[in-house]
Structures are given as structure tokens and as C-alpha cells.
Amino acid sequence: MKKLIIFICIFCSCFTCFCQEYNKVKDILSQRGEAKILVKASENKLEELSLFTSIDRKIENKYLVYVNEKQFNKFLTLGLNYRLYQDEKQEKQINVATTIEQMQSWDRYPSYQVYVDLMQNLAQDFPNICKLDTIGYSVENRLILSLKIYDNATENSPKFFYSSTIHGDELTGAVVLLRLADHLLKNHQTNNQIQDLISNMQIYICPIANPDGVYAGGNNNVSYATRYNANYVDLNRNFPNPKYGQHPDGEEHQKETLAFMQYALEEDFDLSINLHGGAEVCNYPWDTWTENEKRHPDTEWFITLCQEFVSQVRDAGGNNYFSDVTYSGITNGGDWYRIYGSRQDWQNWYTKTRELTLEISTSKTPSSNLLPNYWNKLKEGLIEFMHNSLTGVEGVIKDINSQEIIENATIEVTNIDYDSLFTYSNHHGYYFRSLLCGNYQIKISAQGYNDTLVNINIENNTTKTQDIYLSPSSTSLSSHEKSEQEPLIFPNPCSDKLFLRVNGFNEYNISNFQRNNLLKQRINNSNEIDVSELSAGVYFLTLYGQDKTRTLIFIKQ
User: Fold this and answer.
1) Within a 10 A sphere around the Cβ of 536, how many other Cβ atoms?
2) What is the chain's alpha carbon radius of gyration, rounded to the nearest angstrom?
3) Measured between alpha carbons, how far is 549 from 502 in angstroms, rounded to an integer?
4) What is the per-residue DSSP string for 230-264?
5) Which ranges of 64-206 would DSSP assign to H, the alpha helix?
6) Could you give the CA distance from residue 63 to residue 87 in angstroms, rounded to a whole number?
7) Distance of alpha carbon 166 from its chain centroid, rounded?
8) How far apart are CA 507 and CA 483, in angstroms?
9) Angle formed by the axes of helices 371-389 and 192-200, to 10°?
């Protein structure tokens, strides 16, 4: 009887604690639409947890997890112990600028209108070297903006993309990137390093990728910023994933995700960095796999650039900066914790853009008076990142006889590249391949041309120019060569016709991002598809063969 009484007491105590935590989480969800919980999960549960919640980071032996109402209800079915996570109580001064003048000292967060005004003013004040792009609109129809900064750079120069705040409550990067754009534009005539950058690359800066999350509390308030967008979806889990396909989070692609994918495919970035907050570390691909499971071909390149960045920001911010996750300040994403649907992995796998993630502040939304400190720590590192990424080889690929440019040619570094993570020439025939200093052999191939091997030497952190001339092939590709080639679609973006380079596939299906099937047919002998009846937008092309499928993304202009 005594043991029974003790058991009943323990059971009642546990049940009471469970109910208390359950009610706390439910209260937060009703107020904000998202809640943070601490979960102690075994490795065999982490995979499942990552697929339908948003794991933020590891805290000692627990994981900090964001959930919305639907995710929390599903989480409860796992039977895992949890408790509501509440940020440590600390005095924060979150000031918001409601006028342009109040942003002069950069110690405030901008209101939505001030943010838009700042972006528009920079483009208007420097019209010869800056233009403002609209990436798209959020669920609540706020603008998602990007500044393009360039000088004497034509289409034949690398494209570098900085963006921040895909999680709306991670706001340090938003102000830092705004200030970076301001700094580049206002100093390009007097600062040789900036002048060199703007003359040799096209720089794109998107300070706020999730405006609905930032301004969830209203256009003049960032104190109630949310991680998720207005539909309570984590945009950095909402991208197609190489392991789990188009919808790794079980959600439809959000308006912001679709807009960004279309923008990225249209602009065809070479290099990209996504700024986050909540930790201080350089996170290089993959997020989907640990380094032992799968290494990115450019792992050494990523690590080297990250080492140089960490050294730079520690010189400015002290040796403890970028040390809370690893001593080196660098981590492979999957080794830290695995996530699926990140923009980083989508960019690297699907668009072949070399992208990494920078976590720049342990506080996601620090006191606004601390923002100038973060700028002082990061300024030179962010500029140096762009400068260091220019090391590599570039050039134009042409027909040796007609001198016409060749687009969609494959540039493969023979002793490095695998997983089809090659570089391709753009519609001007231009290619850029970032590489560390050293000796390389590159193979250039294009449909209807003989493969060409070129040996190059890159030294002194320079960009080597290597134009390449291909000779037309007199015979078609051998069956072995065809089997080795990945499916290719071109041109991309396209207008009326889409051409395929495929082998072993005999049928295709075109669907939109809502996964509605629009066109399913057999592949014809000319390997072309008439897409003239499709509306402008982004589409999936799924190829079917015996025991295999492959899905590619294309843009209809």
C-alpha cells in the first residue's frame, strides 16, 4: 500500500508538471503564434524532430526548438520531455527609428517605412552604381528588397549576395547589412579596397528577408519580432532539400520562399552569405549531412575563407568573439545539428551557388545601443569576405570557329568537383569559379562540342582570366559519356522553348510550386519542350526513367 501511495504521488506530481508546461506553451502560442521549448531528445528522435519543428540550437544536453500550434500538437505525440524556454531576463533597450534622421548614428532598429526609405534613398543617391530590386512581397505584402551595387562591372563579373534576417527575430544582421550598403556606396570613391570590389564584382544586399517576422508587432515595433513568417512557417526550413525533396518541413512553399528562389535563379549568384543570430559561428555546408556523411567539394575553400573571417573579426572584437559554439569559430552545419530545408543547402545543391551561414551575435535582438559595436567588429570581416572570394578563375567560353558565346557549358575542376556541383557559363558565356591558390585542371564540356581540358595556376590571391574555345564535335556523345552527364535544361530562364540534355529519361512532368501538374508528355526526339503557354514563374520539371526520377527547377519569363 505504501509503494502504491508513493507511485500515485509521483504520478500526480509529474502530471501536474506536464499540465503546467503544456498550459504555458499553449498560452504563448495563443499570444504569438510560436513558442520556444527545451527538449532532451535522443539521436533517433532528432531526425524526426528536425522534419516538422524548427530546431534553433543545442544548449548543453538539450535542444532549443521553435513550434507553432500544429507542430506542438504533433510534437506531443512523440512523448518527449520538454519545458517552455524563456529568454534570460535582461534589461534591453530596443529603440526604433521612425525617421531617417534617427538612423544617423545607427543605434536604432528601423521601422518598416524607414527601412524602405533607406533602401530607396541609397539607390536614388547613387544611381550610377546602385539599383533597387524588388525580390518579391511577403504574405502581408511587405516589400522584400535587394540593393545591387556595381561599377564598371558587366555581366562578366562574379555575383556576391549578402542577406539577413530570414528569421525575423534575428535582427543584428539587418542593421549591419544596411550599414554595409551605406558604407560601400559612400566610400567607393575614396577607399581603394571598396573601389576594387565594386569594380570587379556585383554585390547584392538584402538586409531583411522576412519582413513580416520582423514587424510582427507592427511596422513601428520590433520588440515582438517572430522567427516565423506571418503563416507561422520557418522560411529557413521551407526550401527544397537534397535528401527530403521539395517540402522537407511538410509545408507549402511560402510566398517569400518562392520569391527568393525565382530571384536566385534569375540572378544566378556565384557566392552567397546568409546572416543569422543566436550564436557566433561560421556554418558551412552541409546542414543536411555531417562532414563524415558527405563533404561539400569546396569544404577546404569554405574553411579557409571562414578562418580568415574569424581572424579578422577577432582582431576587431576580441579573442572571445565567435567562440561560443567552437573554439575555432567554424563548424560544419550537420556536425552542429542537422536541419532540412535551409536556404544554404538549397543554394549549394540546386543553384550551385557557394553559400554559407554566418551567426553573428549570441543575442538575436541585442539592445539597440550595442548595434554600433557589432558593426565595428564585423565591418572589415564582411568586406574581406567579398575580397577573398574573388580568388579563382573566370573567363568566357566561345565556339572556336564562329567566336559565338556558349552558354550552359559545364566547368568541372577534375580533382575537386563531384556530386554534379559544377559551375556553368551564363547566357553571356561567362563563368567564374572560386578557388584557393594552387594548380588545377578544369574540364569544360557543352552539348555539341568536344570536351576541353585546361591547366591553370592561381597565385597571390588573384582572379585568373582564362577564356576557353571549344571545337564542335563531329560525332555525338558516346553512350558512356552520356550516362556520366547529369540532366541539364537550358536556357534557364526560358521564354518559349526549353531544351533538355538527358539520357535514360523518356517522360517528363511540369508542375508549379503548388504541385499542380500542368504538362506531362514523352520526351521527343528533338529534346525540346514548348512552354509558351505557361505563365511567367518558377516551375518543377520532373524527369522519369526506368527506376529513376530527377526534378529540376526552371523559370519561365
Assistant:
1) 10
2) 25
3) 12
4) TTS--GGG-S-BTTTBS-TTSSPPPHHHHHHHHHH
5) 69-76, 112-125, 172-187, 192-200
6) 14
7) 9
8) 17
9) 50
Cα–Cα distance between 536 and 518 in angstroms, integer?
Answer: 14
Using the Cα atoms of residue 107, residue 371, residue 264 and residue 340 in order, give the sign of their dihedral: negative
* Amino acid at position 271, single letter: L
**Cβ(165)–Cβ(215) under 8 Å?**
no
Reading the block at residue 110, the C-alpha cell is 528601423
Sign of the dihedral defined by the CA atoms of residues 520, 524, 527, 529, in that order: negative
Side chain identity, residue 539: Y
What does each of the 557 residues of the chain score in pLDDT, given as a tens digit? 555 444 444 444 444 455 888 999 999 999 999 999 999 877 778 888 999 999 998 888 889 999 999 999 999 998 899 999 987 666 789 999 999 999 999 999 999 999 999 999 999 999 999 999 999 999 999 999 999 999 877 778 999 999 999 999 999 999 999 999 999 999 999 999 999 999 999 999 999 999 999 999 999 999 999 999 999 999 999 999 999 988 899 999 999 998 999 899 889 899 999 999 999 999 999 999 999 999 999 999 999 999 999 999 999 999 999 999 999 999 999 999 999 999 999 999 988 999 999 999 999 999 999 999 999 999 999 999 999 999 999 999 999 999 999 988 999 999 898 888 899 998 889 999 999 999 999 999 988 899 999 999 999 888 999 999 999 987 544 434 444 456 777 777 787 888 887 777 888 889 875 567 888 888 887 778 888 888 877 888 888 886 677 777 888 87
CA distances from 53 to 39, 50, 65, 75, 287 (A): 11, 6, 7, 8, 15
Burial of 68 (0-12, 13-18, 19+ CB in 10 A): buried
Peptide bond into 211 cis (omega under 30): no
Angle 18-20-25 from CA coordinates, rounded to 5°: 95
Indicate the Cα dihedral angle 248, 252, 257, 262, nearest 10°.
100
Please provide residue 177's backbone torsions phi and psi, each rounded to the nearest 5 degrees: -75, -35
Residues 6+ apart with CB under 8 A from 212: 138, 139, 140, 142, 168, 229, 230, 256
Phi and psi based region of residue 429 (left: phi greater than 0; alpha: psi -120 to 50; beta: remaining): left
